[in-house]
Amino acid sequence: DAGVIQSPRHEVTEMGQEVTLRCKPISGHDYLFWYRQTMMRGLELLIYFNNNVPIDDSGMPEDRFSAKMPNASFSTLKIQPSEPRDSAVYFCASSDGMGRFTSGGGRDTQYFGPGTRLTVL
Amino acid sequence: RKEVEQDPGPFNVPEGATVAFNCTYSNSASQSFFWYRQDCRKEPKLLMSVYSSGNEDGRFTAQLNRASQYISLLIRDSKLSDSATYLCVVPISGGYNKLIFGAGTRLAVHP
User: Fold this and answer.
1) pLDDT above 90 (res B27)
2) Given CB atoms, is A113 within the 8 Å cutoff of chain B?
3) Spatial separation of the C-alpha atoms in residues B75 and B23, rounded to whole Å
4) Dihedral angle of Cα B6, B107, A35, A13, to the nearest 10 degrees
């Protein structure tokens, strides 16, 4: 089975440009998460969706960031305008969890994509 | 106090050694916990889940101490392939899907 797919894998852009990151979750998963990872702040949850609906966007840093999920198989994270401090690795993750814990790490496990390494000059 | 705290390491150990990492969390209402592994420049992957007092999977043992609010990960008979960063993960109370990741503990296993 294909895992979570993200594109592009690397993005280098200049300050002020619009950046769009893309994610395809694992088929059948109804939760999708966007994370950002930096050396200073570690791995942070930005926003997550359930059945294509944004549930919690409290981690989105500011209005320059927006995320959409037009259908069950596609999501985007957009930064407009980009700034050098946005440079990070952005991960997308998906799960089929329903909020129940399983000790074996089964259906509630979050599966991460390979990430997009963003550099804003 | 940070929501999830880990010793950043690095832990440098020889092959075959036993190594343990600790993680403390601030939310006493958290019910389930996870250890993720992240290799250099790769994505995090689930290593183990912890719900009750502990969980064991081969060379890996995770233990939970609710009274002291800490979780530990024990790796026995370390292999070179165990070299990675180990992330302690705690769900925010009331919402399993919101995970708080620790900064990670780096492990380097040498020959």
Assistant:
1) no
2) yes
3) 14
4) 130
- Taking contacts as CB-CB distances below 8 angstroms, the residues of chain A near B39 are none
Which of A87, A113, A108, A77 is CA-nearest to residue A12?
A87
Which of B48, B50, B99 faces A110 most closely, judged by CB atoms? B99
Distance between CA atoms of residues B60 and B77, nearest Å:
9
Q: How far apart are CA B54 and CA B36, in angstroms?
A: 15
pLDDT tens-digit series, residues A48-89: 999 999 999 999 988 999 999 999 999 999 999 999 999 999
Main-chain phi, psi angles of B85, to 5 degrees: -105, 135
For residue B34, how many other CB atoms are within 10 A of its CB? 25
Phi, psi at residue A59, to the nearest 5°? -90, -5
